[in-house]
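Good morning,

Attaching, inline, the backbone tokens for the sequence recovery test we're adding to the shared suite. The designed sequence is right after.
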């Protein structure tokens, strides 16, 4: 017997992120997943700037 997986759709919401300033890099990270005040791209080590994206909400249990 097969059952349909009735999962609730998660609606995207405007989320604060940090975006890489390098034109050659597409790196970004959610604001609630950063651990320090110095925001450096983990992919290319360039400076990052604040921005927003439409993303599904994810709670970070380590974010106090």
């Amino acid at each position: 017997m097969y059952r349909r997986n009735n999962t609730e759709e998660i609606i995207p919401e405007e989320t604060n992120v940090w975006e890489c300033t390098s034109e050659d890099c597409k790196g970004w990270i959610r604001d609630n997943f950063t651990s320090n005040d110095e925001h450096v791209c983990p992919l290319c080590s360039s400076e990052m700037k604040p921005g927003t994206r439409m993303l599904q909400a994810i709670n970070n249990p380590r974010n106090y």
